[in-house]
């Protein structure tokens, strides 16, 4: 089976064992998202739908000599009531005829307008917004900060390393190398409080040279991370002193048989969703290597020449047997071994280890050919909340993956903003002619029920509370429920104009949702006063 199928199977098996043992899921007063079928026991005319975000335009462009080649690999976070967006910058220094690399930051009060703080002076350039570490990594907040550094940078130098800073802007200090092998692109790490450990996601490789996503973890941040020693490490690539990752860390995301041939997944941009428990979201870039093969043909590796074997750091021009495919490639595509477009997909996990990709449509699509994000997209690590909406960011390029000349170009690439509904990544959609579903047995702790729901004008939802055997509880049947309609992230549910559920708190129940033309994103039993008493 493929990696995604195995992961989903393991999740479902664990849930089935739990239900078979008669153990209800304790949801407490925690928000529950419908990103998968974990909570659904049975359904009719209900389906899960991925909801792509709305593109909100360019957040900022490359600016100044430090950024005149490209900017990318962003990460965003809230810090003390304001926002920071860190990103990698590549510039061309004409005097020294060399490329400069830097990790830069911009700040914002609203997530829309971004400013460049003056942090560090670089000879020949002047004051810049560089934080003074390398590039291509990701900054994260360390809630434990046992070494006194609240901010950590997990990045790529010659090998993935940890840096620390008290304020995340200045005074960065090299702490220690995390791994003794090479891993380029945007490596990331964070502290997972549910697992009580630090986790990292890095670029890996299959033995035949396909990019994958691997995961490492450690309880102690102050020393090198554990990994599996192997007798035959992956080949060293040019400009790398260390071997690349293959089997040293477990692969958690990779292409499978549902993907077209020559597809890589990397730059996972994993976010442990901040506003609900046990929801991990990844937004990997799906990289398709050109030229396109005929749909009815699956090529084998013998059709690659020895000069451009698909491996890290390989060079040379692409040589395919399929010359007809080459003739169809637009002339602006640079047909090196790295040629190809990238868009952004979405993967889902309940534990950060077992991932599945149930939706293969792009989460963020490429822009129209003339737009600045028409060829290559990389999602930012992290997201910020603004009221009922989430802002996400991505780096957009109008050049393809193989078009790297080492010279400035106009116009340059951009960082763009996305707008997503709170909890809105996936919804349970009720058929316009009517649909329903029943949850698995639950135990909750709270006094009332709220929904993140959108019925628009003609839709409607009612909720029935049942006992563990599926019998409606007195006063909480579907006919007792006041019809829910409207579009809110915190819609209260009432039965005969009453919302009080204290008498049911701690009891094993099932919820049956009857829906028409509606989208249900999440539910939550809450302890505080309902947002609106209906």
Q: Number of DSSP strands?
A: 37
For the largest beta-sheet, the strand count, sense and barrel status come to:
6 strands, mixed
Task: Please tell me the overall pLDDT.
Answer: 86
How much of the residues is beta strand, in percent? Answer: 35-45%
**What does the radius of gyration come to?**
25 Å
Quaternary form: single chain
The class by helix and strand makeup works out as: mainly beta
Number of helices: 2
Low-confidence stretches: 1-21, 300-322
Q: Helix proportion of residues, in percent?
A: under 10%
Distance between the termini: 50 Å
Shape: elongated
Give a structural overview:
The chain has 2 helices and 37 strands.
Supply the key terms.
single chain; 534 residues; mainly beta; six-stranded mixed sheet; six-stranded antiparallel sheet; 37 strands; 39% strand; disordered N terminus
């Amino acid at each position: 089976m493929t990696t995604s199928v195995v992961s989903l199977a393991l999740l479902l098996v664990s849930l089935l064992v739990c239900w078979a043992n008669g153990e209800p899921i304790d949801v407490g007063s925690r928000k529950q998202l419908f990103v998968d079928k974990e909570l659904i026991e049975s359904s009719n005319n209900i389906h899960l739908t991925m909801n792509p975000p709305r593109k909100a335009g360019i957040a900022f462009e490359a600016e100044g000599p430090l950024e005149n080649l490209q900017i990318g690999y962003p990460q965003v976070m809230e810090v003390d009531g304001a926002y920071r967006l860190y990103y990698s910058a590549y510039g061309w220094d004409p005097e020294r005829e060399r490329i400069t690399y830097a990790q830069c930051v911009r700040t914002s009060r609203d997530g829309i307008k971004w400013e460049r703080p003056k942090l560090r002076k670089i000879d020949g350039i002047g004051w810049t917004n560089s934080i003074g570490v390398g590039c291509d990594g990701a900054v994260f907040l360390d809630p434990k900060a046992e070494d006194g550094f609240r901010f950590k940078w997990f990045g790529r130098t010659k090998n993935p390393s940890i840096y620390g800073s008290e304020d995340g802007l200045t005074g960065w200090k090299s702490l220690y190398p995390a791994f003794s092998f090479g891993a380029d692109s945007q490596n990331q790490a964070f502290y997972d409080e549910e697992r009580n450990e630090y986790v990292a996601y890095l670029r890996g490789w299959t033995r035949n040279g396909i990019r994958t996503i691997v995961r490492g973890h450690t309880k102690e941040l102050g020393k090198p991370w554990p990994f599996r020693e192997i007798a035959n490490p992956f080949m060293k690539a040019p400009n790398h002193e260390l071997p690349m990752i293959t089997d040293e860390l477990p692969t958690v995301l990779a292409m499978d048989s549902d993907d077209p041939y020559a597809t890589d997944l990397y730059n996972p941009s994993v976010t442990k969703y901040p506003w609900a428990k046990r929801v991990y979201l990844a937004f990997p870039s799906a990289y398709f290597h050109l030229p396109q093969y005929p749909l009815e043909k699956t090529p084998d590796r013998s059709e690659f020449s020895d000069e451009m074997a698909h491996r890290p750091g390989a060079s040379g021009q692409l040589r395919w047997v399929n010359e007809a495919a080459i003739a169809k490639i637009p002339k602006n595509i640079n047909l090196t071994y790295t040629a190809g477009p990238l868009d952004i997909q979405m993967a889902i996990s309940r534990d950060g280890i077992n991932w599945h990709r149930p939706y293969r449509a792009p989460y963020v699509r490429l822009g129209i050919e003339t737009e600045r994000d028409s060829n290559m997209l990389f999602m930012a690590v992290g997201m910020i909340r603004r009221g009922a909406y989430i802002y996400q960011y991505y780096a957009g390029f109008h050049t393809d993956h193989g078009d790297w000349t080492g010279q400035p170009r106009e116009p340059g690439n951009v960082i763009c903003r996305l707008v997503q509904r709170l909890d809105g990544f996936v919804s349970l959609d009720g058929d316009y002619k009517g649909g329903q579903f029943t949850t698995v047995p639950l135990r909750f702790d709270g006094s009332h029920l709220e929904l993140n729901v959108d019925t628009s004008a003609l839709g409607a939802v009612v909720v029935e509370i049942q006992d563990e055997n599926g019998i409606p509880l007195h006063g909480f049947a579907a006919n007792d429920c006041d019809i829910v309609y409207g579009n809110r992230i915190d819609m209260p549910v009432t039965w005969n104009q009453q919302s009080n559920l204290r008498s049911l708190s701690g009891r094993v129940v099932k919820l049956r949702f009857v829906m028409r033309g509606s989208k249900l994103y999440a539910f939550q039993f809450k302890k505080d006063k309902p947002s609106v008493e209906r």
